[in-house]
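Much of our argument rests on the idea that a fold can be written as discrete symbols. The record that follows shows the chain in one-letter code together with its fold in token form.
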Amino acid sequence: MISINPILTSLIVKSSNQEIAITNGSKSYTYAEIYEDSRRLASYLTTLGMKKGETAIIATSSSYELLLIFYASIMIRVKIGIVDPSIETEIYKAKLEQLNPQWAFIDSKILLAKEYAILRRFYEYKGINTIHLPSNDKCQTIVTGSWMPLIKSHQNIKQYKVHQALDIDPSFIDYEYIISYLASTDGQAYELVHTLGTIAHSVNYVNRLMENIEVKTFATHLPHSMLIGISAGLKLEIWKENWTFKRKIKFLTEKKISMISITLKSYKELMTFCEENNTILPQTLERIVIETNLEESKRLSDYSYNQQHPHTQITVMYNKMNQITFSI
């Protein structure tokens, strides 16, 4: 059964829209810029040899670059495996063996830790986990992140800017595109698997959640939630998971964020901080969406933090065998 790709069509419809779609730190980008840059990146990746049906892993932080990688991969019809660098090394190695990727988008900080022993020792001293890169000779590495100029041995994602935009066809079979997300919560690895169908379901659900919210500003640090937010037409603000909780509260207040999407671990830590510091979430924050898996969602009844913040509603979104279920 052939169906229209809901992620690409939502972007194509806004391909000439000059409204701000995403803010990452001090930089903002319009829908038109996302569309054009994604097509240029897709063109660049095809010149490198990327083909439909191949697999790419991403080990980089949420950013504008990451969003472009998502869209370009969808345009080329490449499967994505997102790897959270905080997972244990052995689990990461097992993930690599499972995916057997032909492509790897790796943050420049991770590469530098591998290539410069002094940085690796510093990370080890600080207790920062540095993931291993694919050892498969057939896997090509593309560098992302702010430290790219220091690395000369791999392709640079910024090269897409010099390429002509790729012509795209947004129609293809839903299950051909998959996002597999491997992360760590409380020391335990868990995996979420999304297809175009489940992402489209998520987009429709987020739209329903935001119907009665006047200021539609959405913040997340989760990679797939970025894609959902943009596709739902929300103004996306990227926040960093390594920010202090004081900075996160300030960010939510100053940006007038109306909805955030976070993991159960992040939710617990944020609520614990508020409780211990007698802090109330800003009144503008109307909804918290907790992204989790089925097993974790069963433990939510153990937490009643939201009683301190009656103006903020909690929604749980989990994924089991490509089927997303929502509850409030």
Q: What stands out?
A: The first strand starts at residue 3 and ends at 4. The chain has a mean pLDDT of 79. The chain has two domains: 32-185, 196-327. The radius of gyration is 19 Å.
